[in-house]
């Protein structure tokens, strides 16, 4: 597809001294999409994210076959540092990505390494902190910030390079449900405000239901289902081994459609589901 910003074709990968982990990956990520990647632990989700940024195989080594293209270019022809300006990644172990003492220094680090002027760095630091809801925190020490604020800070440091693509690998794994919902609402706002392509690895797709446009389900290093969310959800529901990955609301929705002669709306929240079911119930009452 001409509007794909990430494309993997026949991609296989094995870490050094390991068996093949990713097997015949064929995947296209559409420009401007919000793509969720899910599957059991060990399915290869994190490695797939690393392949999208070029750090697999360039940094980790190992054996691979096939092709990975990012923004229309083969990653084998690009430097990792150049890709990092176009593709931002936030790991689940976010603390390991932090290198500085203050919030401003944390965001400035990669910009200075890429030769931005001090004035440009200052402007981008302020903009990035505003984007993530941490205005005027440039001089805060990292230990003065809560865990959730440090996670937002890392997101700000990724956004400061103004990447075309944002890849998040289980970014809420250490957060409580309220914090997780808040972070994903922020990511969705950034996605829409900046027209950014977003890829998120998340084991609990209930958090992403309001936002995702596309879904990828993995199992044992292979992609089992991929595509626009509704299409992929219907495919997954038809396979018992994949059904549990779906958001709970959609398991209910597709279960009702399988049992009764109805086609329900695109439920993205409990409120939408309750409203539709209540309206259908009222119509049935009126017909009695």
From TrEMBL:
GO terms for cellular component: ATP-binding cassette (ABC) transporter complex. CDD domains: ABC_cobalt_CbiO_domain1 (cd03225). Keywords: ATP-binding, Cell membrane, Membrane, Nucleotide-binding, Translocase, Transport. This is ABC transporter ATP-binding protein. It comes from the Bacteria. GO terms for molecular function: ATP binding; ATP hydrolysis activity; ATPase-coupled transmembrane transporter activity. InterPro entries: AAA+_ATPase, ABC_transporter-like_ATP-bd, ABC_transporter-like_CS, ABC_transpr_CbiO/EcfA_su, ECF_ABC_transporter_ATP-bd, P-loop_NTPase. It is a peripheral membrane protein. Its main location: membrane. It comes from Acidaminococcus intestini. Pfam families: ABC_tran (PF00005). Coiled coil: none annotated. Residues 6-245 form the ABC transporter domain. Belongs to the ABC transporter superfamily. Signal peptide: none annotated. It is found in: Cell membrane. SMART domains: AAA.
């Amino acid at each position: 597809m001409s509007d794909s910003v990430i494309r993997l074709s026949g991609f296989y990968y094995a870490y050094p001294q390991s068996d093949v982990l990713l097997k015949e990956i064929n995947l296209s990520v559409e420009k401007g999409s919000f793509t969720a990647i899910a599957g059991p632990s060990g399915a290869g989700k994190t490695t797939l994210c690393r392949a999208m940024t070029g750090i697999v195989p360039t940094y980790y080594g190992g054996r691979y076959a096939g092709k990975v293209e990012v923004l229309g270019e083969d990653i084998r022809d690009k430097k990792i540092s150049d890709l990092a300006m176009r593709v931002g990644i936030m790991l689940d172990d976010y603390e390991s990505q932090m290198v500085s003492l203050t919030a401003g220094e944390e965001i400035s680090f990669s910009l200075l390494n890429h030769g931005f002027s001090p004035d440009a760095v200052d402007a981008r630091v302020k903009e990035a902190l505003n984007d993530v809801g941490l205005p005027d925190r440039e001089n805060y020490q990292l230990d003065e910030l809560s865990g959730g604020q440090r996670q937002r800070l890392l997101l700000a440091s990724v956004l400061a390079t103004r990447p075309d693509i944002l890849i998040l690998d289980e970014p809420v794994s250490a957060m409580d449900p309220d914090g997780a919902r808040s972070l994903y609402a922020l990511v969705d706002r950034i996605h829409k405000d900046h027209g950014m392509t977003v890829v998120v690895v998340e084991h609990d797709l209930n958090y992403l239901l309001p936002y995702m446009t596309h879904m990828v389900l993995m199992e044992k290093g292979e992609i089992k289902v991929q595509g626009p969310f509704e299409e992929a959800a219907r495919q997954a529901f038809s396979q018992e081994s994949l059904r549990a990955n779906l958001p709970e609301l959609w398991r209910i929705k597709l279960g009702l459609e399988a049992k009764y002669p109805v086609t329900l709306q695109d439920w993205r929240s409990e409120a939408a589901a309750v409203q539709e079911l209540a309206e259908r119930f009222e119509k049935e009452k009126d017909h009695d």
